[in-house]
Design brief:
binds magnesium ion, alpha/beta, binds adenosine-5'-diphosphate, 4-stranded antiparallel sheet, 13 strands, CBS domain Like, globular, 38% helix
Amino acid sequence: MITMEHVTKRFAADGPASVDDLSLVVPEGTTTALIGPSGCGKTTTMRMINRLIDPTEGKIIVNDEDVTKVDPVELRRHIGYVIQQVGLFPHMTIAQNIAAVPKLLGWTEAKIKSRTEELLDLVGLDPSEMLKRYPRQLSGGQRQRIGVARALAADPPVLLMDEPFGAIDPIARTRLQDEFRQILRRVRKTVVLVTHDLDEAIRLGDRIAIMKSGKIVQYDTPDAVLSHPADAFVENFVGIDRAIKRLGLFTVNDAMNTTTPRPGASTVAPTSSLREALALMVAANSDVLAVVDESGAVKGQLTRDAIFAV
Ligand SMILES: Nc1ncnc2c1ncn2[C@@H]1O[C@H](COP(=O)(O)OP(=O)(O)O)[C@@H](O)[C@H]1O
Ligand SMILES: [Mg+2]
């Protein structure tokens, strides 16, 4: 769906390459997280996809079309864009903000109204309360939800997100990330997400592209990045606790067996992550947990060896 081939961006003709001979393929319906230190070229890479920035060299194909051959305004109507500062129009109500692109596309009032209500529902906000409010009357988390709703309004196949949850407190951020994952299960989109938060990249990315000085140093699944960092830079970037972060990618279900646990063993839910399970083992000073589902039924046990073997 999105292909970048040998793309380079120099902001000054004789200046350094902010993006340096970068190639990237984002398959349809998947999410790629671009991550790396500040200034490594994440935002520049993303903004070339919707032509907010033009590449100096190379080719960018979105949905079988060379983006340099499409009218940029037209292009952006088919690419949703969410940024950290959200960029809601302050003098427009929430309803008007969400309706901005559908209006440009000439949708009827009735269609816009039902779409707006559907989108608010999708992002977990109550239409009757929200539609007439102005952006300043919303919390940071609510504004970010509106930003996502607005980007999805005309149902674009591609969504670009630049640090979308960056300004939100950690608890609300985790919740928004989980909800966004649910949303993506319902509306299949091809997503490029820029973040400097490794946990966010792991949680949301089907693939993670780790960038350094305008180049991608590793492009892989979260599991592969955490288990096999390509070089010392990636290893240092993902951190000393990468093995523990990796356990967050698996659930108890993935590693349990159906042996009846000994009475009195500490319990864990089958849907918990192995990271949580290991933390429970440490807290209980035990190398086996009883797996108990939400109805209270004992499903089996989880051993420390099984966690280590994942
Ligand atoms: N409009 C611009 N003019 C000149 N240099 C820029 C411009 N935008 C970004 N840069 C430079 O390009 C590099 C990459 O920036 P950016 O893509 O914003 O990084 P990131 O999003 O990874 O933090 C940085 O060195 C930055 O200073
Ligand atoms: Mg940036």
